[in-house]
Amino acid sequence: MPYMPRGVAHPTDLIEHLNALAPFPPGVVNLRYTIDNDWSGDPAVFFWITLSDEAAHPTVLPQTTRQIRNFITQQLDPAGQWDLIPYFNFRSQSEQAKLKEEVFG
Predict the structure, then answer these.
(1) How far is the CA of 62 from the CAs of 25, 38, 86, 99, 105, in angstroms?
(2) HEC profile of 17-63
(3) Angle 22-26-30 (CA atoms, 0-180°, nearest 5)?
(4) Would you write out the chain's pLDDT as a tens digit for each of its 105 residues?
(5) pTM for this entry
(6) Would you give the distance in Å from CA 70 to the centre of its chain?
(7) CATH code for residues 6-95
């Protein structure tokens, strides 16, 4: 019998846990996610996070992104609980306003 990651086998449970992440850490304007295979075919969850311009400022961006990654990893544990490799993508609010990519909302 082929192995199926828990996040794929029980998508409703995963979505409930993902939606329960709010409220988000300071600086998060929007958080979206997709569940798909990564470039190597491994099951993954991709987080698309829009940050306030203040939180995305180069002087604080490393701390901001670390705090958000840690928050999601501790609250959701994508790899341990759901067998999904987490990928994090960040964009500032002004950058998203210029690019208007749907995945970032």
Answers:
(1) 14, 24, 18, 22, 22
(2) HHHCCCCCCCCEEEEEEEEEECCCCCEEEEEEEEECCCCCCCCCHHH
(3) 55
(4) 567 788 878 888 998 998 898 899 999 999 999 999 999 999 999 999 999 999 999 999 999 999 999 999 999 999 999 999 999 999 999 998 888 877 666
(5) 0.88
(6) 11
(7) 3.30.300.30
